[in-house]
Write a structure and sequence with these properties.
Layout lengths: L3 H13 L4 H8 L3 H9 L6 H11 L3 H6 L15 E5 L3 E2 L2 E2 L1 E6 L4 E55 L2 E9 L2 E9 L2 E25 H7 L1 H11 L5 H10 L1
Parallel strand pairs: 4-5, 5-6, 6-7, 7-8
Antiparallel strand pairs: 1-4, 2-3
Helix pairs in contact: 2-3, 7-8
Length: 245
Amino acid sequence: MIPIHFQERLYLLRKQAGLSQEGLADIIGVSRQAVQKWETGAASPDLSNLAALCDYFEVTMDYLVRGEDMPKAPAHIPFRADYEYTSKRTFMGLPLVHIHLGYGLRRAKGIIAIGNIATGVVAIGGMSAGIFSLGGLSLGIFALGGVSLGALVAFGGVAFSLLLSLGGIACSLGNALGGLAIAGRNAFGGLAVSEQVAIGGRAIGGLALSQEELTSMGSEEAVRQILAAYPNTPQWVLTLARLLS
């Protein structure tokens, strides 16, 4: 059985490094329950896990297991940021708020989720998925991110959606606005491609109006042509055409 020095020192080293039990478990490659048992004395790590702990915290096995003093040149304990908060209140089995941030794959799952990987009704993270989603890679009904995939609306450097996409590259089955805009209905962009109305520096579509053509014909003529070709064109499309004329 490993002496009690080990339990105390493992706990102190973990706290000094800013790690949760789950964070240390991820680093060593064991379960959180294993780390919990080591710290309570309910179980002992095997030799390979002991070696991994010593390597990570940069301490000797004598220090960690036997409780001997640190060497004259104190070991450097690397800082590892890891923060986790879970609200006590829940809804349908999910915490109302779950925040999990740090190095590596830190997953947050809740009604409001903030983490390296976040899933929730409102999700914010490097990778996020939710009804309202914000992240580097964002998936949701309403999505905002570097790369966004939205069931209805998407905003991002690269944006894909069913209804409305806005981004450097915007693709939508409905409406798209962007440097490169590709849409099933209405597209506005430097290069606009659409089955119906396409307006842009270069336009390709059922009704294609380049910026030069739009300026020369004037706003009312542009609106007249759009309505003649597609009578059910939404009002916001006509307003945008007027503004670009």
